[in-house]
Design brief:
The protein is α/β, with parallel strands linked by helices. 28% of the residues lie in helices and 17% in strands. The protein has a 22-stranded parallel β-sheet. Strands 30-29-31-32-33 form a five-stranded parallel β-sheet, sandwiched between helices. Strands 3-5 form a two-stranded parallel sheet. GO terms for molecular function: transmembrane signaling receptor activity; triacyl lipopeptide binding.
């Protein structure tokens, strides 16, 4: 119930199964419905061409929903619930069935498109809740009638209505009752059989009405007359489509329109002969027809117009002919016999009609002509001279001339021909074959608008008139513009090869500049500053170099509209380089400080690196890291030599040559020479009278002053002395700690001690003066630890205790000797 479906026998079994399967599933849950996420920032959702078989789920905030060209077979009463904000809904090319309450929740809907579906019965319940609907399209559905109930009675805001198809057979008063006024009415009734007179007569005011009545005009002129008479008003634009005016009877409906004093008439896609044209002019004789348009005309006959000579069409103001095909044109005598018509119009357009010449005699007849459009024809430079009578003063009131899209090649010829058109303000000579521009050209002094787009121009010369206010040179091969045009307000240069903006001072009054689709890489504030009055810049679709200066200028000044308004949209300004930014919008590009301030970045980085380096060096110095590195390097270097010497000595001489290596400061040399050396190398028995006392043994000491080999590296001497001595005696004092050489000796002894070649007891520490462990530099961590774990000797200041000091020292030295 509530669904209008075509008969089951017409549905493929698989499709019928999907319909009811989807219906059953969706009644239980929306979780199985597909989703459409193609919605933009304006809440316009384009879900067309997506092969949906059910209405997809979209955001409840959607304002526009396009579901056209899908395979939706049914719209249920639940599909569109929650879309109370929806303004536009298109189901074009979809539904076979629509529930009677499918649109009940769309209170805000303003436009509904149900065209090109398979709707056979239109349910008046669809529109009950659509009080805001303004546009409704029901075209090209296979319904034969609009139904027994008034469809549009509740659509109080309806302004545009389209209905009908090849299947429509009848229109009655009840079908369209309730419609008071329309801006546009479209009725497709090529096979219409019944029309109730007055059915459309109540629609007033009626702006534009489009009627496609091919069949009635041929076979049922009374129906066509009644229908055309109901919609013909002096203020209504009547457009008739798909007509074949082959007989006199086919013109009968125009008599009804003539009685209504119709003023605006257009015939689209019409086939007519010269005889029917004459009859049409006779039928509309005296009618205040001001606008007559033929679009898509096939004309037959021989051009005999004599019978229409006496007709009155003084009100005719504009004649528009487009896409005209004249069959057997070689049989046509002339159009001169229509001269009685040519004297009235102020606007004449003959577009894409195969015109290669308009005789000068015809031009003389156009005495009131102000607007002439001969675009997309076959005019040449030679035939244009005939058309404009070689500039002999015809078309004196002409203000607008459009001869674009012809076969003209000489810009000089065109300028000379239009010079005598003393009131000409607009000239369109675009889409012709101009390959060069002469240095000077005569122009009418009134010329304000000139269009030379889509030609083959390579340069701009002073040929252009200085009176121009609007100049269009789009789609040429220009790369520069060096011409002062003081009156110019609009300049269009899109589709050329400009690398930079033209100099603004040449156009002091320029307000609009279009330079899209060129090869611009950037523009700056200084470039725009030269345009004193520029308000609108259109420079998108160029090959922008997204360097820091341009990106910063675009984002800070252009995007915030501090400088210029971009009417072509910021999304058209895309990066072409560098490669990693290609295709991205300039307004959304982010460049790092490395990209934008490379020199500053390098300078700051180097400065910071220098500061960090200095701080690291200070830290390493405080932590004595340099000392450790220097010692490691020296130790490794010396170690190789030590190993080599050790092998040589092992082969040639005993390894140990000294009882002790004495390491001391030069400032403590007096104590070593006066006390230590005599006591150990030249011992004397203090108890000489005691015969039982054991004489003291003399010890061999290694002193750097006398035992280091001259000419040898000092480090090698130190390493050799330590290795060749049983013990190493350090004379520790403040002087020792400040001596570089003592530090070397202590350092290498430190390495030797913990390298495994020397026993820890082989080191003897003598404190020449009181020193605590904290006085030892922290970099000698092992030595500080050794002082905390090993007994050391202190030089007594009291003379009575010195004998004990020497005895203890000899014991320490003999202990090593005994162990050896």
């Amino acid at each position: 119930p509530g669904f209008e479906l075509r008969p089951i026998t017409t549905l493929p079994p698989l499709l019928l199964f999907l319909v009811f399967l989807c219906r059953g599933q969706r009644s239980n849950s929306d979780s199985d419905r597909p989703s459409c996420h193609r919605c933009d920032l304006t809440f316009s959702c384009n879900c067309s061409h997506a092969q949906f078989i059910v209405v997809p789920m979209v955001t409840d905030d959607a304002l526009t929903l396009d579901l056209s060209f899908n395979n939706i077979v049914m719209v249920t009463d639940d599909d569109l619930k929650g879309h109370a904000r929806l303004r536009v809904l298109s189901l074009h090319g979809n539904a076979d069935g629509i529930h009677s309450s499918a649109f009940a929740s769309l209170w805000s809907l303003e436009e509904l498109d149900l065209s090109d579906n398979e709707i056979k019965i239109i349910n008046h319940k669809w529109f009950r809740k659509l009080g805001a609907l303004q546009r409704l399209n029901l075209l090209h559905n296979p319904y034969r009638s609009l139904g027994p109930h008034p469809l549009f009675k509740s659509l109080v805001q309806l302004r545009r209505l389209s209905f009908g198809s090849d299947a429509l057979e009848e229109i009655g008063r009840a079908h369209v009752s309730g419609i008071d006024q329309l801006e546009e009415l479209r009725v497709h009734g090529d096979n219409l059989r019944r029309y109730e007179p007055g059915a459309l007569a109540d629609i007033w005011p009626l702006g534009h009405v489009y009627l496609s009545l091919h069949g009635p005009f041929l076979n049922n002129q009374s129906l066509a007359s009644a229908m055309l008479g109901d919609v013909s008003y002096p203020e209504t634009w009547v457009i008739l489509e798909n007509l074949h005016l082959a007989t006199s009877q086919s013109l009968q409906p125009f008599r009804e329109a003539a009685k209504k004093r119709i003023r605006y008439l257009s015939l689209h896609n019409v086939s007519i002969s010269d005889q029917r044209v004459v009859e049409f002019l006779v039928v509309t004789d005296g009618v205040p027809l001001t606008f007559l348009k033929f679009d898509g005309v096939t004309l037959k006959g021989e051009g005999r117009w004599e019978k229409a000579y006496q007709t009155d069409h003084k009100a005719l103001d504009e004649v528009y002919l487009r896409n005209v095909i004249v069959l057997d044109v070689y049989k046509f005598v002339s159009f001169l016999q229509l001269g009685f018509l040519l004297q009235y119009p102020r606007k004449v357009s003959v577009i894409n009609a195969g015109v290669f010449v308009m005789p000068c005699a015809t031009s003389y007849l156009l005495v009131n002509l102000q607007y002439l459009d001969l675009s997309d024809n076959l005019l040449t430079d030679l035939t244009l001279q005939e058309t404009l009578c070689n500039g002999r003063g015809t078309l004196k009131d002409l203000r607008v001339l459009n001869i674009s899209g012809n076969a003209l090649k000489s810009l000089s010829t065109v300028s000379q021909l239009v010079t005598k058109l003393s009131k000409l303000t607009h000239l369109d000579i675009s889409r012709n074959g101009y390959s060069w521009m002469p240095q000077s050209c005569p122009w009418p002094p009134t010329l304000r608008y000139l269009n030379i787009s889509q030609a083959k121009l390579n340069t701009v010369t002073p040929c252009l008139p200085v009176t121009l206010q609007v100049l269009d040179l789009s789609n040429n091969n220009l790369n520069s513009f060096l011409l002062v045009l003081p009156a110019l307000t609009e300049l269009y240069l899109s589709g050329n090869k400009f690398l930079m903006l033209p100099l603004g001072w040449m156009f002091p009054n320029l307000q609009i500049l279009n330079i899209q689709s060129n090869t611009l890489t950037m523009f700056s504030l200084s470039d725009l500053a030269s345009y004193s009055r520029l308000k609108d810049l259109q420079a998108g679709q160029n090959k922008f170099d997204c360097n820091c200066d341009f990106v910063n200028f675009f984002q800070s000044d252009i995007q915030r509209r501090k400088v210029m308004h971009l009417s072509d949209g910021e999304d058209t300004y895309l990066c072409d380089s560098p490669l990693y930014l290609q295709g991205r919008a300039v307004g959304r590009v982010w460049l790092s400080i490395v990209d934008c301030h490379r020199v500053l970045f390098v300078s700051v980085s180097c400065g910071l690196a220098l500061i960090v380096g200095v701080m690291v060096c200070i830290l390493l110095w405080r932590l004595h890291a340099f000392w450790y590195l220097k010692m490691m390097w020296a130790w490794l270097k010396a170690k190789r030599g030590s190993q080599r010497r050790r092998r040589i000595r092992h082969e040639t001489e005993p390894l140990l040559s000294f009882d002790a290596f004495i390491s001391y400061s030069e400032r403590d040399a007096s104590w070593v020479e006066n006390f230590l050396v005599p006591e150990l190398e030249e011992p004397r028995n203090t108890n000489e009278g005691d015969m039982d006392s054991t004489p003291l043994q003399s010890l061999s000491l290694c002193l750097h002053k006398r035992d280091f080999l001259p000419g040898q590296w000092i480090v090698d001497n130190i390493i050799s002395a330590i290795e060749r001595s049983r013990r190493t005696v350090f004379i520790l004092s403040e002087n020792f700690l400040q001596s570089d050489w003592c530090r070397y000796e202590l350092d290498f002894s430190h390495f030797q001690l913990f390298d495994g070649h020397t026993d820890r007891d082989a080191v003897i520490l003598i404190l020449l003066e009181p020193l605590s462990r904290d006085d030892i530099p922290k970099r000698f961590c092992k030595l500080r630890k050794l002082m905390g774990s090993t007994t050391y000797l202190e030089w007594p200041q009291d003379d009575d205790r010195r004998a004990e000091f020497w005895n203890n020292l000899r014991k320490a030295l003999r202990t090593v000797e005994d162990e050896t």
